[in-house]
Design goal:
The chain is α/β, with parallel strands linked by helices. It is 42% helix and 19% strand. The chain binds S-adenosylmethionine (SAM). The site of S-adenosylmethionine has 22 residues, from strand 1, helix 3 and strand 3.
Length: 280
């Protein structure tokens, strides 16, 4: 019987067989810890359909195939296509798409999967260089109920950050506004090949009830990103630039009872929501 892809010896064999080296430019760190891989897949609410970003040589994908009815995996590195065709050949419930995830039509993919399988979740060991845009893109899709991702520890900290913390950012606000966020566990650098310098964490986002329309949420997030655009600037300066109108910015801040000399980093989600309501 074949060993799991995530065992260190099988990973090494695959890398040798295909003469592969992890590409730094694509943020490639392959998971070589079957226990972590299984724990991650089994906690991902992946029973129906699951989307993976960056299957690599297929370690997490394999575990997801064992749990889910359907796995869709987006991989940007064309050199991995024949590797995945080989490593995942025993599974008929997986589709690997050669595409930059940031360019895919996620709405369409999720709508199709939801129609066919009922619910859609995301599970991935994210490439560190695009963690933020990938998460922003996933957050925008309100039909994804659970997101379970492995990220660098610092990124994980941002989701727990509160106003005035250094890590508090637009990503923190959006994440906490939409989801209950739980840190599942820490993954040491030695669980990867090659080992990154920093530890990673697996965090899980479970979508909160929200009565706002998709459009309203997007508009709120556009405002949040504008408020955090230049972190050192005051909320007034960022808002003035966004609205292209200083007077309007002053009035809105007054009405929302937010001192104009504060910075976005000092504002709670409630204050940002109040500002959004006023501008509506
Ligand atoms: N899932 C594998 C594992 O856990 O061993 C690999 C994880 S590795 C950290 C990240 C993967 O994402 C790599 O396979 C990399 O090629 C892929 N990747 C990088 N940028 C991507 C993008 N824009 N769209 C899709 N995949 C991408």
């Amino acid at each position: 019987m074949k060993k799991l892809i995530s065992t260190p010896s099988r990973t090494k064999k695959i890398l040798d067989q295909f003469n592969l080296r992890a590409k730094k430019g694509f943020g490639q760190n392959f998971l070589v810890d079957p226990v972590i891989v299984e724990k991650c897949a089994s906690m991902a609410h992946a029973e129906s359909a699951v989307i993976e970003i960056g299957p690599g040589i297929g370690s997490l994908t394999e575990a997801l195939c064992m749990h889910a009815k359907k796995v869709i995996a987006f991989e940007v590195d064309k050199d991995l296509m024949n590797v995945l065709a080989d490593t995942l050949s025993d599974y008929d419930n997986v589709e690997v798409i050669l595409q930059d995830f940031l360019e895919c039509d996620l709405e369409q993919v999720v709508t199709d999967l939801k129609q066919q399988y009922g619910s859609v979740s995301v599970c991935a060991n994210l490439p560190y260089y695009i963690t933020t845009p990938v998460l922003f893109k996933i957050f925008e899709n309100l039909d994804i109920s659970y997101i379970t991702v492995m990220v660098q520890k610092e990124v994980g900290d941002r989701f727990a950050a509160k106003p005035n913390d250094t890590e508090y950012s637009a990503l923190s606000v959006e994440g906490q506004y939409l989801f209950d966020i739980k840190k599942l566990f820490t993954v040491p650098g030695r669980s990867f090949n090659p080992s990154p310098a920093v530890d990673s964490v697996i965090i899980q986002f479970s979508r909160k009830e929200n009565d706002k329309s998709n459009q309203e949420i997007q508009n709120f997030f556009t405002l949040v990103r504008a408020c955090f655009k230049q972190r050192r600037k005051t909320i007034y300066n960022n808002l003035k630039e966004y609205l292209q109108d200083g007077q309007l910015a002053t009035q809105a801040l007054e009405k929302a009872e937010i001192p104009s000399n504060k910075r976005a980093q000092q504002l709670s989600i409630e204050e940002l929501e109040r500002l959004f309501e006023v501008l509506q």
